[in-house]
Amino acid sequence: MLLDPLQSRLVLRAALENRFAVLAVNADSPAAITDVLEAALACDAPVMIEASLWQLTGLSFGAGDPALGMARYLVDLALMASAGRYRNLPILFHTDHIRGPGALPLLTASVRGLSTGVDGSVVSPSTVSVDSSQLSESENVEALVAIAAAAAGAGRSVTLEMEAGVDDGVTDLETAARLLRGVEERAPDVVHLWAPGVGTRHGLGDQSAFSAEAVARHRDHAGRILGRPVGIALHGSSGLSPESLRRAVESGVVKVNWSSESLRIRSIAARDFYALAGATLESPGHVDWKSTAMDQGVQAYVSDQYRPRVVERIRFLGSAGRGDVCRAVLSKS
Ligand SMILES: [Zn+2]
Predict the structure, then answer these.
(1) What is 5-262+312-331's CATH topology?
(2) How far is the CA of 203 from the centre of ligand 1 (A)?
């Protein structure tokens, strides 16, 4: 089941109360999405699929058109999430790291509902964030307020993640207060995820500056500022040890973004597949030529390498077997 913005809040709240985190995978292709859903299904875990601008404009989705890419991505995921196999699995779709001059038009359009082109139906994300790395504090606040206003104007709910300097060390509490209050005063009860800097960095570099204490401090502080429990979204989780992940979750992280390491596992598997299969591709008469040359060949090999790693990550975050907890809170809504 693909969760709407209000259902997403319930799952994020359940994660905070029950001390687990939802794995949020930045997925590049329909094959990658399928692999993540299969891994989540195997351990009955709620899971989040995220898309950044490069996926929306890439050849698997929008082919240069981010709005078309967002609609295609969402339609693909919604169709999968409603299929019998995944119907009981809590699945969220999140917009991750969308920036530049086209970001706000794209995000406001998406929360109003993007046309699927079929029978007038529309789709919209479960949760939305704005990449604030190129924004001032006031621009960051204005962007979230504008997205909330766009959703309200269309009579739709929205659930936002606010971020601040996620690659710039630990965000100070004064900055956090200005940002969170800035949105809350003008758009109450839309921010349900807070992504401050907690010492991690995007990419595959050193993560020794990660601070679980900063996570706990920001969780408490954001909860006081907003007047409701708010979980922390962790950016730059690639390279964190299982113990660091466990402490992050224990301290209040409810959503863990996973991109660089995920891309690395998939691309190395693809490289290995073609290294192993290279001779077959040179021999068109070979009995395995077609099964090697078709997209399914490399995708199946990558799946075999990748899915167990996704399952492992889900287990590190304590979300394996938490489908029941999520379905219980969703059934009461
Ligand atoms: Zn990030």
Answers:
(1) TIM Barrel (3.20.20)
(2) 9
